[in-house]
Amino acid sequence: MGFSELRADTGLPVGTLYYHLDVLRGLVTQDPSRRYMLSREGQKLFESFADKEGIPHQRPSRALRILPGWAFVRLEGSLPLAAFVWVAVAALGGGLSYTGGQALILMQFGVSVFPDWVDVSLFPISMVAFLLFCLGASYLVSRRGASAAGLLGSGVAYLPYLIFPAATTMFGSMVGGGLGLFYLLLAIVVQGLALVLGATYMSSTYGMRLERSLLLQLLLYVVATAAFSVLQYAGLISEAWRSVAQLIL
Asked: How many CA atoms lie within 13 A of 28 on its CB side?
């Protein structure tokens, strides 16, 4: 595995991970592409330990390698790049919200009665709220903070939220009986991707276990859904997928 993959999977700070790799020198080595692997001595030691502890001889799961933890690690190391990505996602989100006629309330898209400038500003406001939630939750749970670049790296977690307004902008003028179901499924996929990316961001940036990060993201989703429901009950907003489907059908 590469250093960024190790960083994302273990959730360790950069300095701590380098320290442990230095301690394990001789047992952990690097291949020509500088990816880390067990040396022959390291493999023998692991197998000996596994025999004593009754651990099956199998390679660790690589399921988490499909998650882009390396992207958050990369952004954490470059404040200008992290700032550019955050601003770009916020600007695109606001623009697509305007053209798609939707407003993002934390993690839920809706069609609002607010002025257009409010709909546009709600996307970056939701991004700021997500950033502050992750920072506060991480501090309460593990007393860990993040650098300015790490905070702005949270913008990547909102990339999936560009998909829904982009789709409604592109296909909103089309008609068809199946489009209502399409928009509903698209909304579910977008929220699922955002939950996974948000959990990966918290795990990579704040050094939390992915399972705990995912639970915190689910908590935020519940809060966002409750806030959306209150606005919906007050008649200020309606579900975006349902509103778009009604318009085109």
From this structure: 17
